[in-house]
Amino acid sequence: MREDDAMSVSHTLLGLLEPGPRHGYDLKRAYDEQFGQSKPLAYGQVYSTLSRLLRNGMVEVAGVEQGEGPERKRYTITDAGITDIETWLSTPESPEPYLQNTLYTKVVLALLSGRRAGDVLDAQRAEHLSLMRKLTRRKNEGDLADRLICDHALFHLEADLRWLELTTARLDELAKAVVHD
């Protein structure tokens, strides 16, 4: 897992703890309901993240309950955790232009190898359109959170499609530039 993924999960769990104490399984369920539609959070990741947050003073154990199975700890956010989540929420993310993305690399490699770069772009276009159809169905059937999440993804996919069309229109020019370099 990348560092920014771990930070996102940590901050998300802190945010979910802010309204009040919760057990690890409650945090997982809340995370999955709100943010994990396409990739639910693993229980192991919840507990390892909680351990790290506990070690770093961002959360503390609010109580331990005995049950039929292992002890169930309730976690609560600390003042340091609240400060951390406030800082994270108020700090904008850095935009990341995809200058060397995989698709561009595939197109250039197709041109360099004499393969049909248009086929690469056509296959990618079909994949984008398929995902856009799925997201549109989810958006139409979902609640407000689903609609907002799907709109974000659809806007990015539309931008990718515009790039695919532009690149397709410029394939001859790109082939000349790539093959003659």
UniProtKB/TrEMBL annotation:
Transcription regulator PadR N-terminal domain boundaries: 13-83
Top-rank taxon: Bacteria
Spans traversing the lipid bilayer: none
Coiled-coil blocks: none
UniProt-listed Pfam families: PadR (PF03551)
UniProt signal peptide: none
Descriptive protein name: Transcriptional regulator, PadR family
Organismal lineage: Bacteria, Bacillati, Actinomycetota, Actinomycetes, Pseudonocardiales
